Amino acid sequence: MTTIAVFVGSLRKDSVNKALARNIERLSPDGLEFRYADLDLPLYNQDLDADLPAKVVELKKLVEESDGVLFVTPEYNRSFSGVIKNAIDWASRPWGKNSFAGKPAGLVGASIGALGATQAQAQLRNVLLFLDMKVLGQPEVYFNASAGLGEDGQANESSEAFLKGYAQAFAEHVRTA
Ligand code: FNR
To answer: Which positions fall inside the NADPH-dependent FMN reductase-like domain (predicted)?
Structure first.
């Protein structure tokens, strides 16, 4: 079994990014297990590096025990969400104990407009490279949720083929990186 820690950067119930993650999970090849990280965390505080909150210990364990990490981010004000950044900051610490180092990573994102979280992903990619992750370069998924998802959150036919292609490339990347 290949295990994937999934970071969805929106906490809202009807998140289109959560729906995107669920669709990629559904379209993934056999043998991949998605484990959704709880990113509803306190704000990062370096004073706590020596005694991390229990939820952060849990998050670091999830990442370290997973074969790869999938980041699914909304775009907030032309960047990725604070939810993602806060979780990354926690799991990258304390100094010398970066849980992400060397892990294969994928990143995708959805917005309700046509641009599909392009700028959020460009900025997030830079952070993941700094964290020494092995980031999948292609294909890119700039997902317009208004056009690509039905009301039930299910990808429509053309999106489904596209997301299936991404899921296969990501699985291959995690297994070979
Ligand atoms: C947005 N949204 C947005 N969309 C976009 O394409 N570019 C942007 O810069 C922003 N900025 C932005 C800021 C804030 C604070 C919010 C709440 C929203 C719209 C965003 O794409 C939309 O709300 C998505 O539905 C958010 O993703 P989830 O929560 O549905 O996963």
So the answer is: 3-145
Complex-level ipTM beyond the 0.90 threshold? yes
Residue 118 belongs to domain with CATH number: 3.40.50.360
Q: Which amino acid does the sequence have at 172? A: E
Q: Is the CB of residue 11 below 6 angstroms from any atom belonging to ligand 1?
A: no
Digit-coded pLDDT (tens) for 129-161: 999 999 999 999 999 999 999 999 999 998 999
Pull the structure tokens for residue 17: 């990014």
CA distance 127 to 124: 5
For ligand 1, mutation pick of 11, 15, 22, 76 (most atoms within 8 Å of CB):
76
Identity of the amino acid at 77: N
Q: Residues of 89-114 as b/e, b for ≥16 C-beta within 10 angstroms?
A: bbbbbeeeebbbeebbbbbbbbbeee
Number of structural domains, the chain? 1
pTM for this entry: 0.98
By residue range, what is the domain housing residue 61? 2-176
159 lines ligand 1 (CB under 6 A): no
